[in-house]
Amino acid sequence: MFSLDLLRDAVVFGLLVGCFYAAVSIGLSVAFGLLDVPHIAHPAFLVLGSYCTYLLCQYGWDPILAGIALMPVFMLLGMAVYRFYYVTFEKRGTEAGVRGLAFFFGVVFIIEVGLVLVFGVDQRLVEADYIGKSLTIGDMRLPLRLIVAFGVALVLTVGLTLYLSKTFTGRAIKAVAQDEAALRLMGANPVRIKQWAFGIATAVTALAGALLIIVGPVEPTMDRVYIGRTFCVVVLAGLGSMSGTLVAGLILGVSETIVLTLLGASWAPAVSFGLLLVMLGIRPQGLFGR
Amino acid sequence: MKLVRAMVVVLGAMLCAAPGAVLGQQPVKIGMSMPQTGTLGGGGQAALLALRMWVDDVNAKGGLLGRKIEFIVYDDQTNPALTPGIYTKLLDVDKVDLIIAPYGTVPTAPIMPLVKQRGLLLMGNFSFQVNRTVKHDMWFNNSPWNDASSWSDGFFQAGQKLGAKTIAFLAADQEFAQNLANGARDLAQKAGLTTVYNQNYPPATVDFSAMIRAVRAAKPDLVFVMSYPNDSVAIVRAVNEIGVGDSVKLFGGGMVGLQFTPNMVSLGKSLNGIVNYNSYVPGMKYPGIEDFLARYAKRAAEAKVDPLGFYLPPFNYAIGQMLEQAITATKSLDHKVLANYLRTNEMKTIVGPIRFRADGEWANARVVQAQFRGVVDKNLDQFRQPGKQVVLYPDQYKTGDVIAPFEKARK
Amino acid sequence: MKPQRYGFWVGAAAVLGLAALAAATIRNEYYFFAAYVVVQFVVLATAWNILGGYAGYVNFGTSAFFGVGAYIAVMMIKATGLPLGLQILAAAAVGGALGFGVGLLTLRLRGIFFSIATVAITIILETAVINWRYVGGATGIQILRPPVTEPFESYIKMLFVAVVLLAIVAVAIARYIETSWLGRGLRAIRDNEEAAECSGVPTLKLKLLACTISGALMSAAGAPLAMYQSFVEPASAFNLTYSVSALAMPIIGGTAHWLGPVIGAVLLGTVQQVVTVTVSSELNVLVVGVLLVLFVVAAPEGIVGLARKLRLRLRSRSGAGNS
Description:
The complex is a heterotrimer. By secondary structure, chain A is mainly α.
């Protein structure tokens, strides 16, 4: 059953889906890679974003517009979460690292169960003109929903990367990641900056959540499978590398689709985690890490 | 003093009478878990409504053996991990007299060892071959099939008439689909079909594009799919998006969920051309079913569940009827006595007469294979009349011939 | 210390005696069905605490070991039909080996990376089991219990007493570790691993030992699951909820003392069972999450820590009152 056509299809799909994985993970790249927050609740916020998009779509909104509209809301949410985390854990020193992790793990479950109680365990999906149709290129039929997700994800990822490297606040964020003390000496408030950064990371995740529900149906426990994908991308890229996130996402996307095509769907969940373990074992600083 | 004494006497009399009165009116407790959410939820809610209708009908006539029925139901969310706990609770905490199995193979399989160990009568509800390894002798499965052949015969025969030589199998890795897949693969081999693609997928899979592409690359004549509602819908959408290739003559077979009205309405014209199994389509003559469906439609509109109720509700009502018949005839709630009656007698229900074999399945299967034709989007009423699902098999219900190849039938 | 040592064994014997008495007298089997889960969590929480509380390595992979234990039992039932006791021992052996292997691979990683690696191992093992048709794959497998041995009346009562015995063994091991050279070494690692390394503590050996023991106990706790539920399938055997509960219970009870996980497990486990029977099974996961967050934020030393603070405050107050 192995044919070159199938492989070519797999690579193309993998690239489309991989860019989407990059957009989904870039929030974590900022939160964990730059700010060192053990944000294991990131995929839970992603799914939360998907459900909020679903709610708005019930009122007739287009999912992408809904995602954009949710960004300021999630920005505030992110800033509040960081403030709480900082006050409760970061101030108190190293012991807090373990507890911070446990805290976020608790948050994951609260969000998951909250979604089950509000929406039920059933799958939810959204309708839009571009969901269900496909684009025919040669003898390949590419689903439009993946192409749309690819486009938005690309804009999101590149946009955030440029923001962090070109704008003043963006560079301040990178600076605070590298040397907090120096920044403080220069008169900037590192906590304020980190809070802002975490807020942006969460806002980006809201739009990524909209893409998630465009790409396929969501259900409350989906965050568990995305823990693997997002951390795989972030570790593969290397902590602190934004442009690396896009490349890492593509690598994950293509690997997953190839395994899916050649070995079957039952091995696919292990690809992201397996890649993660391999990276941690061979080269923990990632491909482009500092 | 006289007043106090009088009160004591009256109270005493009441207390003495009360146990007697309570015993006489002690309800018959019937308990079950039903998947009301999760992948089977759409069907489960409709099935539950039919059972509630039966309970109401019986209670209106005076109850079972003069006692009202108390119906206790929990939601198992189509999660097999929850059913052992739920049934243990029903038996030990709620202390039910009788139990009915949840709708579907996946929630039912985990409780088979439990009911065998405790020697309980269990009325099965549209599950497939869950008793195969446990071999419980008090199991009576109400569903129109018995072995794998009852599912696949129609599909394979229609395929062979079209000259099909190769077949692809796509099956969910769960109890129902795997039971069916094991049977269907053997039958395909016996029928002389060569398997060119064989894939099991984890039940939580949401994206089928890779698998549909692989199916297309294998260029099969027949594609036999064994899936649960969420996957069935996702597979139909994937086929609609990227296509399955011109070689395919027939697609479908064992897709659960394409019989639930909400799915049929939302998939609309994506369904066209698919040949799939069903238990009942409008036009089939079962005694009393049309009255039932009319009554059901009213209650369904109030309860906001599947308004047509063709697939499961009549059969669930029939489960109730069978229990009623057995209890009334034997005047007993003893599980062994009831099991004996169910094994040896013919049951009269709104889905026709039913006899059970030694393994607890129907003696005579009555599954139909039908092809969706001319379905349009977002229209519920089109399914009320015969014609949108053309029955291909068995002959006694046949209403038309198959249109192939698959891609042509979709236009 | 001496009087306390005998105190512990007397207490343990009393607990076992109570369990046997309950099995002999209580009729309603549901109590044993629910109590089994609570005691199972005592084992899991105690096992987690050996690595998580004493050494400070937050293991999110409890579900991996638990699931492996359940599936080793399944494999043994299918292949050999050997009794429960041997199933538990086999599971413990495999769990210990797995713990050793996991330790070798991941204990070099710091903080969150170790934790993510343990989640990764859970999913990878679950995927491996999904692809293993012999034990049922993703479908799951029905298990028929053998007839129960004397003097127990029913299998669930025997399972209950078995798991109580296992809990006593687990707590005894944890208590021994805590008061021995191993515990001192682990505490040094938790406080400052580099300093411990520099002062000559064989950190890798100690961590590996803790990981092995912890893994063996977790897998032992998973083995009776096959007989308990009569049905095993990967999604529930490897469910991350076990990881969260095994993490939450010691944090709630207190991670510094062996009594902490026991208190946390009994408290949280009982609340969960009550909620499951009266409300729904979703809400019991919410309870775990909320209590975990609450305790991590407000009472990081757990109930044991709170009790200690209360005792100190009462003592100082009575001291001040006297003078």
